[in-house]
Specification:
Length: about 350
């Protein structure tokens, strides 16, 4: 086995085609092709997503090889997202990876997408801390598809402590954003319009959920019913209060997440927290967690650089690297899965 293997990582679980090449923990190239088509539908249309992965995959792989300044035969293994995700999209990435592995005669590494989000912190210079979290730590995965608190004992020893019982946090932000008239994905728009808003103007109730689980569907309905009621009296309500609504939604979302993580810290005695997933790009969520760590000196918060928050091939490649180093190879008969419950 090579000392510094070169791994290609292929991500296609949702609407981003991500292909990255890493050598050991260093990223040589990281290509992400976003699918703009979903904007007009207010959310990801699965059939369109898989078709576009199919169209974009070859170009993404060619570009990744070109920018990495390597030749295909230098690649030591191919890593891809096995699940969870949209099954049609996953099948495109899986089929490409399997053909690539057979064509070049190199090992195949099938990766769990949620594990990969967390392990993205082990890519060189991938977080604002410029260091790797030490085990054990708590991973907070907040994305368009997932909202989970995960106890990470080791690279592949992960335990889900809490999950959303309904919508993910990203999904709820995207749905609220849609009511406000924003395109998909709405999370970044909510952040943008929050900037000059008064985050105390509107108080939305926080969901009451036992243990370390989350619920965002009630929160989303609460906000949407509130807005609909206001619009009946004043059709310009959204226009006149846009920044304040966005800031208030963002503040409460950040509070819900931080409160659950505080509870997880108390229950586990683990003070190292690694944020991951698209929603962890959010300024207010980052700020709240950083300020919490400043007040609690025992606590250490690992914040990913923005490029590693949303779905990307580099996180798939680093997870593949860990499998490669442990000889955890997969057969071409490995079948993608859309839903995932336990590690
Ligand atoms: P992922 O599923 O990890 O690719 O993340 C996509 C989700 O992250 C979508 O629901 C986006 O709305 C959300 N998102 C991305 N950037 C931000 C942001 N700056 N603030 C809030 N949500 C965001
Ligand atoms: Mg994701």
């Amino acid at each position: 086995m090579k000392n510094k293997p070169i791994i290609i990582g292929i991500e296609s679980s949702c609407d981003d085609t991500g292909v990255s090449i890493i050598q050991d923990r260093n990223v040589l190239s990281n290509i992400i092709i976003h699918q703009e088509i979903h904007k007009k539908y207010g959310g990801v249309v699965p059939e369109l997503a898989s078709r576009l992965h199919d169209i974009n995959m070859t170009k993404a792989v060619q570009d990744a090889i070109f920018y990495a300044k390597i030749k295909p035969h230098q690649i030591d293994a191919v890593s891809f997202t096995l699940g969870p995700g949209l099954i049609g999209s996953l099948l495109v990435g899986a089929s490409f990876a399997k053909s690539f592995s057979m064509g070049l005669g190199i090992p195949l590494l099938a990766v769990n997408h949620i594990q990969a989000h967390i392990l993205s912190h082990f890519i060189e210079n991938s977080n604002l801390n410029n260091s790797y979290p030490e085990f054990p730590f708590l991973g907070l995965v907040i994305s368009g598809g997932h909202t989970q608190i995960i106890k990470v004992n080791d690279v592949f020893q992960m335990e889900i402590l809490g999950s959303t019982l309904d919508d993910s946090v990203g999904e709820s932000l995207d749905k609220i954003a849609r009511i406000l008239g924003f395109y998909y994905p709405g999370g970044p728009m909510i952040e943008f319009f929050s900037k000059n808003g008064n985050d105390k103007k509107f108080i939305f109730s926080k969901p009451v959920v036992n243990g370390l689980d989350f619920s965002f569907s009630g929160f989303k309905s609460d906000v949407s019913q509130f807005i609909k009621k206001k619009l009946k009296k004043n059709t310009l309500f959204i226009k006149q209060n846009l920044s304040d609504i966005c800031a208030s939604v963002q503040k409460i979302t950040a509070e819900i997440l931080l409160e659950k993580v505080q509870k997880a810290i108390l229950e586990t005695g683990i003070y190292k927290i690694a944020l991951a997933g698209g929603v962890s790009a959010n300024y207010e969520i980052r700020r709240k967690f950083i300020s919490f760590a400043k007040k609690n000196t025992k606590c250490e918060i690992f914040i990913p650089k923005k490029i590693y928050t949303t779905d990307n091939g580099a996180m798939i490649a680093i997870t593949g690297l860990f499998k490669y180093k442990r000889n955890l190879f997969d057969s071409i008969h490995t079948v993608p899965y859309s839903k995932f419950k336990k590690f």
